[in-house]
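ok so I'm stuck.
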Amino acid sequence: MKRLLFVLSLAFTLVLAACGSDGGSEEASSSGGGSESIVFGTGGTSGTYYPIGGALKPVFEESDSIDNVTVESTGASVANIQNIEDSLNQMAIIMSDVGYDAVEGQGQFDGNAVEVQAMAGMYQNVVQVVALKDSGISSIEDLEGKKVGVGKVGSGVEQSAKKVLEAVGITYDDLSKVTHTGYADSVQEMKNGNLDAAFFTSGVPNSNITDLMQQTDINFVEIKGETADALMEKYPFYKANTIEAGDEARYNLDEAVETVGIQNMIIVSPDLSEDVVYDMTKRYYEYLGTEEVSVGALKQLGRDEIAKGLIAPLHPGAEKFYEEQGILE
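replied:
not stuck anymore, here's the structure
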């Protein structure tokens, strides 16, 4: 009986050891694959960032290093940077002005500089200020005392609106009404006569502005001369931009509109490995060289220019790929 009990005890111990070994092997196998789940922060569903995320999702998911990509609608640039800092997002699209503030620890990031790492540049966001025709607004200075939509709180649109107003000495207190509305809501409020003007910082054309033009008489408020000079001198991420006249794909305007623009860029978490970001950068670059690009904004910057003029340092994985391609500045 003692011998039998000993044998049974030994057998039971061996079974437990085998199970423990199998469990450990399974755990090592699942954690050692190096596969990443990426949450891709974009912007509002009516803007350009969100469809870009949707277009790039399958491109990145082709990578053996990527398990899946979740495209998330967010409050855009500021929220995206904060989400990456908090490890909620691993990739995001931001405007360079907000990225500049984060790197420098100013603006909404005052005293709290953030380590922002770029993967690639994209199209330029054009600051488009649109006013109702009968509002009497023909310059940025004319916005004083008016009802103005400035974009969602914390968005790149709002950051740009504040800087443009600042260039002519206007604050929110000088406006009769300020609404923090997204593109679609700003348009609806203008249609209803509840707003005199609104800021749209996006690619051209913005479908919401096109919709407004079809139903209401409007005019574009230019950002030029001393106002543009003041912006570009103080904030190096602003560049002169002109919306040409007679271009059916860009509002088909009777006269050209002078304004300024800001480059967009894809940023990634510093916690992502060099190999993962290298592979994503490579796939993004190769995708831009195909005819499969479905979002017009992604066609506005040549793929050999995507590593140039960025206001944030490149992630080591992206830098390695661009060095191999010989396209770094």
